[in-house]
């Protein structure tokens, strides 16, 4: 069993986080996480680590190479075989051989973390080579492909001669692009946000939590997920100072993915959640705090959410409670879906309350800024859902009018013994609009 804990503040250590294997420190992953800090932001490093933990457990329990389990520090060939098996049997992917690498096709049973897992594993072996833990080449990198591309770029117009300098003007310019060096290449992954418009979803989750006796802490985090649209880590890692920074008592400052810990966005939640939050701080949290401090006595860097041991609450510890509630209540719900639910709900509200297109666009821009989307086109995928919904509504109205017309026609036919059909003469109709004429001719 692999798991991790953040280092308590009162403990002096060079590690911010410790990874454990069967309750013993596991240095390869511990050093990997530490090596990541400063290279990528903390939330990405933690996300990579969470992707790797199940793989390391699988390596130990399920992997097989010629009758023996694969170790993480085995040769490239053994690691590649193990990763391919993991993608096939655990992540339900399809693998296709291609030259010196593998194509990875996702199926409808594959999780949405395939690319992240492969990136994390490639990053892990880069760190292990850098730290001199791994004596082989990176098994997640296709060295042959890089070599071929490099050789092609060195070829000049003169046979068996190197390229002339660019100023000579005799060579085609080199197209500078990022080399795809991955041994496993995902070829059919296109990110699509999930449209979740079940308005009762939050209440179903709250009830699921109550059934497994969630504490105040788990319930507040769940409520904030649905009310703010934030990622779980952005909520779990909040500090007292994050709350004090905002003027409104219903808001907190927090980091964003890729912000390297800088508090560049804010979250807003309901007054009821504010009451629950302070009740938690003055009761449950106070009992966990080794100094039993109240809100006004806490320093700005004190975490809002604590574990039962008085240490900062972690995503790993929180997810245990979330997952248990989902399993017991037979719900299949990734916590990130709360974010999709939030966006879908906000867009529905925007369309309902806006009076014209200008108001709709203004409110959508405000939502984009609140979500801190780097690519505004993300909104287009959600809008497609609402375009379809509006079409369904208009089409349903048309079908209802047709049904009403059919009822009236039938009633009229019964009341009249001799109902003459209406004949529409079209031969003498003058069509001024040529495009309309073409359309009618196309329907014949």
From TrEMBL:
Residues 24-129 form the Core-binding (CB) domain. GO terms for biological process: DNA integration; DNA recombination. Residues 182-396 form the Tyr recombinase domain. Signal peptide: none annotated. Keywords: DNA recombination, DNA-binding. Gene3D superfamilies: 1.10.150.130, Intergrase catalytic core. GO terms for molecular function: DNA binding. InterPro entries: CB, DNA_brk_join_enz, Integrase-like_cat_sf, Integrase_catalytic, Integrase_recombinase_N, Tyrosine_recombinase_XerCD. Belongs to the 'phage' integrase family. This is Integrase. It comes from Jeotgalicoccus aerolatus. The lineage of its organism: Bacteria, Bacillati, Bacillota, Bacilli, Bacillales.
